[in-house]
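Worked example 3 (structure in, sequence out).
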């Protein structure tokens, strides 16, 4: 049994440089999608955002007190 060469076709996918809308579906109704995700998962969103907001406000409060302590 001999080996016979098999012709293969190469398929190349590329974006045209003139293509303007690369990802139109991602940004379409973006605010509606975010609102829907947050309203579906409000508990998870609260548990995620509360520590972040709390830490940020604590850091701002601490920095302000440090500024006031070194003022005089």
């Amino acid at each position: 049994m001999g080996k016979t060469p098999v012709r293969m076709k190469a398929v190349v996918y590329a974006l045209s440089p003139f293509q303007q809308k690369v990802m139109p579906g991602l940004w379409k109704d973006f605010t509606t999608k975010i609102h829907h995700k947050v309203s579906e998962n409000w508990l998870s969103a609260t548990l995620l955002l509360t520590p972040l907001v709390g830490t940020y406000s604590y850091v701002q409060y601490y920095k302000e007190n440090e500024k006031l302590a070194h003022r005089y």
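Notes: The mean pLDDT is 85. The two ends are 96 Å apart (CA to CA).
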